[in-house]
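User: What would this chain look like folded?
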Amino acid sequence: METIVLDIGETLVRDDRHWASWADWLGVPPHTLGALVGAAVAQGREATDALRILRPDMDVEEAYRARAAAGRGEHLDESDLYQDVRPALAELRAAGIRVVVAGNGTVRAGELLRALDLPADLVVTSGEWGVRKPDPEFFARVAEVADAAPEATLYVGDHPADDLFPAAAAGLRTAHLRRGPYGHWWAEHPDVVETADFRIDALTELVGLVASASSASAASGVAPEAEGETGVRRGVLRSVRQVY
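Assistant: Here's the prediction, encoded as structure tokens.
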């Protein structure tokens, strides 16, 4: 493995502040919006559908701009990072792995992330690329910035439909992270189990995982993507949004 690319929301960054700020903007208790987000996740829907349940006529993008204009736009600081982020990314770079952060987010989110000076070679968002996951073009861009062959690039994320399935369809290796609502709820779904090359509970598992995969490949003389134990290039990948 030469490059590891990581999703942003609920992979590196906790979404607590994000949803609490929306609840405050809409004038509802945070637990009300949190419960609706959970219901959307369990149904395989977009988490932002929870906002539309509360305000059926809401244009989320327009509301986002209104919040920003009112001085209540995006905010991100060290407290929003999961505790394993810095040590895991630092270990990966020390091991000679190229570390890229690439996920859905606004241009502002990209600026805020880079201001945190994470131990990463590149930090970029969908807003800066002009294309969002799960669009195949997003993962084509990931393959470009990885500076490694697809089979030597691992994409790590929590969301099956936005991260795992399209990354695998693009020929990248994949790690599903059991974190956040999507990561926990869909962790044992057959499509996730079948598709993910690896399934992890913390980012700090990545260094050992990469070392083990490299050792196994070297010992067997078989390219990682061809190993029966982790090969997942079979069947048609289904979005969790199409399951229920």
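Residues 222-239 have pLDDT under 50 and may be disordered. If you want, I can go into more detail on any region.
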